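Q: Got a minute? One more chain.
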Amino acid sequence: MTDPFFLWLAALPHAVPASEAWVHWRLKDEPTPILDLALRQADFLYLGSWTEQHESDVPQTARCPALRVSDWLFFKGTIDDWHVPKLDNRLIAELVGLVEPRTDDLPADAATPDELRAFLVDHLGDGVLFQEEPPTNQKL
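A: Always. Here it is, folded:
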């Protein structure tokens, strides 16, 4: 069995330029000073974990909530243009729907839909990204 991956959601308090969003989504090792500052100022929610067993080749069919959310945010941040998705009521509903348990989910730890909804509503209008590294600006 492979080691698990962990996922945190970051609510970013200010805008990130498209050029830095491109670097983030493409996993490039280039400077992103504005994104780095936003992440230092961000609030985080631990979303959950997954292993390779949870992955799927078909979009939105991952077998755990955290991976479904990361897939969706990647899609939202890279289709049409490179950007950090902004939390609005529609995106909140989409993300909360993705953490609802499914019958084919494999065991994995995850934030509950209510925990996620509360976090997202508190950050309405902020940008939202996922991070696989734990935040360094907050106690976990």
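A: Helices lie at 18-25, 33-41, 65-78, 89-99, 113-122.
Q: Perfect, thanks.
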